[in-house]
Structures are given as C-alpha cells and as structure tokens.
Amino acid sequence: MWSKREKGNVYTMNGDEPFTFLGKGAQFKGIIHFEGTIRIDGRLEGEIHTKGTLMVGEHAVIEGDISADVVVSGGHINGNIVASEKVQLLSAGVVTGTIKTPLLSIEEGVHLYGMCDVAGRGEIKALDGGREVAQQQLTSVARMRGA
Questions:
Q1: CA atoms of 111 and 82, how far apart (whole Å)
Q2: How confident is the model at residue 128, as a pLDDT?
Q3: How many domains is the chain built from?
Q4: How confident is the model at residue 17 (pLDDT cuts 50, 70, 90)?
Q5: In the beta sheet, which residues pair with residue 3?
Q6: What's the domain range around 14?
C-alpha cells in the first residue's frame, strides 16, 4: 500500500505489493485488470479495473472509466471513477465525469466537472449510465454559462 511520508504529500511503497508502471510518453489502448498498485504517467484510453491503488501522475491522461479500491490523481481523467475505499484528487488534477466513493479528498486547485456521490462507508456499486447523465449535465452547465 502507499503511505504518506511525514514531510509533504509524497507516497512510497511498503515493499511487498506488486507494482505496475506506465511511464510518461507511453500510450495504451484497452482494458486493464490487475491487483496491487499501478502508477500511470502516460496516456491510457480504455478502462482500468483494480483491487488495489491507482496513482495517476500529473502528466497522465486517462480517457475511460476507472474501478479501483483507492484512486489518487494529479492528472487528467475523462471518465467515471468508482472507488470502494477513497478518491484523492491532488492540486494539478482535472476530472470530467462522475465520482462514486465513500471518502473523497479534493485539494485546492483541482478542476472537477461532473457529479460526486460520496456515500460514506457503505457499499459502493457500479454506476448505471453515469457517463450519459454526466455528459447531459455538463452540456446543461455549458448552456447556462453562455457557451
């Protein structure tokens, strides 16, 4: 699992967990299923499903839905996020879509376009048609602002 160091918001590995990395400049299209921790600093188009932690780096771009235990993001996500434990959005982060999680942490500077369903510690179920609903609401917001 990732753990915070005492000074700052830097995450480190405890050592025993499997770790996957998609580096800056790398591109991937498809569906990823895995257990453990993954860090993405590149571009991913598709879906991510994990029983673990997803770290989205500042330069990362994800176009697709995410299902994970924990999501920590400072990058760009265009899709729905369903997290069974928590979602933490770091200051450089941009999310367009619906977030469903029991715990949500948003730092100052995050851009969030969509809806949040923060259910507390209850069971989180998959979104039903969430992407279509979020897109309709975004269109309505854009019309209201004169776009």
A1: 18
A2: 52
A3: 1
A4: low
A5: 12
A6: 2-144
